[in-house]
Design goal:
Helix content is about 45%, strand content about 5%. The protein is mainly alpha-helical. Bound molecules: zinc ion.
């Protein structure tokens, strides 16, 4: 084995370790990591102590539209776009970095990650295949995930018009103005200007 192939093998193992730690599914790793299924399974068992879970990937776009999921998804996608714009790395690495940033943001605000890695990765795929779009809220100017067929001019986001069951929650209704007061990790900068430089990123 040449030095180069040992190094590239090490990189693939590192990539697999990162993905397993983030909770990626075996199917996804098989498609994105240059290691055999057997080695991926062995790595998974070593790291997690159990076999990788079986089951289908989530194929529905509806999940991203529910209230809290939509906030988290919109925030994540803003981060992903920011990372993509400011990095010339492969998509898989951009995805990993954005997902880590998402976890950090949620944690720093004492929240819980609603969007798991598989949902995040599937969302990027849904955007790439034009099933999901972003709409700009006419009230707060935040950019939110919507169904591609549901794109409209008079869009009002879930934060500006929350469902009644969220009525008692303490909401920051102007995510564009500040993201520090909200109990939800909206990280408004990412919702607002995915193409620009979010001030929250140091
Ligand atoms: Zn809004």
């Amino acid at each position: 084995m040449s030095t180069k192939s040992v190094l590239s093998d090490a990189r693939e193992v590192q990539l697999a370790v990162s993905l397993i730690e983030l909770g990626a599914r075996l199917q996804f790793m098989e498609a994105n990591v240059g290691l055999s299924r057997e080695r991926l399974i062995r790595l998974y068992k070593e790291l997690r102590g159990v076999s990788p879970p079986k089951g289908l990937l989530p194929y529905s776009t509806d999940w991203y539209m529910t209230w809290l999921a939509n906030i988290h998804s919109s925030m994540f996608y803003g981060m992903y776009q920011f990372m993509k714009k400011h990095s010339d790395e492969e998509q898989i690495h951009v995805l990993i970095k954005s997902y880590r940033l998402y976890l950090e943001q949620v944690e720093s605000q004492g929240g819980e990650a609603v969007l798991d890695f598989t949902r995040a990765q599937m969302m990027v795929r849904f955007f790439d295949s034009d099933l999901l779009h972003q709409c700009t809220c006419t009230r707060c100017a935040g950019r939110y995930v919507t169904h591609a067929y549901d794109t409209r001019q008079d869009y009002v986001c879930v934060l500006c018009r929350p469902p009644s069951r969220a009525g008692k929650a303490k909401l920051n209704k102007t995510p564009a103005a500040s993201d520090s007061q909200s109990m939800y990790p909206t990280s408004a900068t990412y919702l607002l200007d995915p193409a620009g430089d979010p001030h929250g990123l140091h």
